[in-house]
């Protein structure tokens, strides 16, 4: 028995001994939940390129919004006690929940909400949801409890989009290294490169959380993260990165494995502005050259699912498009020849340095070599990816995992990092947002997604499974991975 299995075995025996002795285990309301993660925030401001780790730690934990994107994909009011819409759909009036205070002690006012929305829509904002709020024409605050948003065009997704807008104290200033939210937890300490702690906020306006706080411990390697759970250094892993790791947690007296729904998509995104990726036939050829089923099996075994587009099944406009540009290497070679590349070509693939990107990159390199395309793999850090790829758009192709919910609308933004620009898609995305009903919105986005898929705007590889592993003493955590959120308030530990 190796050391990891031995540790798990001893832990399981200890748990069984306690239970057999009749020990009464009860949830400890002061317990600190120890969370293991691979996603450390780059900073603490979600409009400053903080990465997905900030959603995991801060969404609905430290910062709240007018609305919440729930774990099941529904949207419900949080700081908005009342929401009224004018007959023409262009004026939205929000009445704020009374008695809410920030962690600094300042009361929540309409001015704070206005300030928070304008942070996201500001020219300097790096929020991926910036364009989603572009329909806002003005924000008025007739009194401290009322926010009036006037739109240039109807926005059926406004409550959903506002769930991404943290309500921040307008006196907070720079929050890249501090916070001032209204959530059930406040920032304790952040040791960059290692850990971030959250403490229960005693003056929280709502129901008190079921625990005393959380400690997020950050790892750069999945093996180290798994070992932390095996050795009882953490209570829970928010997202297991490889099915091979699950065998280590097979002792059900010590560990619990749960699988939920994911919105995390692994894709190879092209810079559609530059040759040869501005050529639809080239993009379609690369899509047909990759055996996605084999790739998924190599990384996730029988978990997860192959994707035919950017839309996962949790979105209302999902349809199975895996038949478009299905695996067909001979057809891929023919398309390359038609595109003017009978001998193939060479490109550089910017590859984040954390799992499973490096493995995926090597697989793609081998697959594309079969049709004469040479891939030079350039491994970069998360920070480098953000500045080089997302911000400067200085790349040919890149691997990335996109975690956001309902994010096919990004293809309607020609300025997004991948540079896909189809006026018909842009118009359909805009029309979907101006829909009167959810059904109308879904049909227009379904149509847009078909066009995006037929043009192989990116190479959508697979949808991650959402696998959460914890010790058996820890319960009440969210199972789904929508927008990489990880709600803490309901988690209990015995």
UniProtKB/TrEMBL annotation:
Question: What CDD domains does the record tag this protein with?
Answer: PBP2_NikA_DppA_OppA_like_6
Pfam families linked: SBP_bac_5 (PF00496)
**InterPro entries registered for this protein in UniProt:** Peptide/Ni-bd (IPR030678), SBP_5 (IPR039424), SBP_5_dom (IPR000914)
Q: Where does this one sit in the cell?
A: Periplasm
Its signal peptide is: 1-26
Domain named Solute-binding protein family is located at 75-400
Q: What main location does UniProt list?
A: periplasm
Keywords, ordered alphabetically: Signal
Give the highest taxon in the source lineage: Bacteria
Give the protein family.
Belongs to the bacterial solute-binding protein 5 family.
Q: Mind telling me what this protein is named?
A: ABC transporter substrate-binding protein
- Please give the organism: Paracoccus aurantius
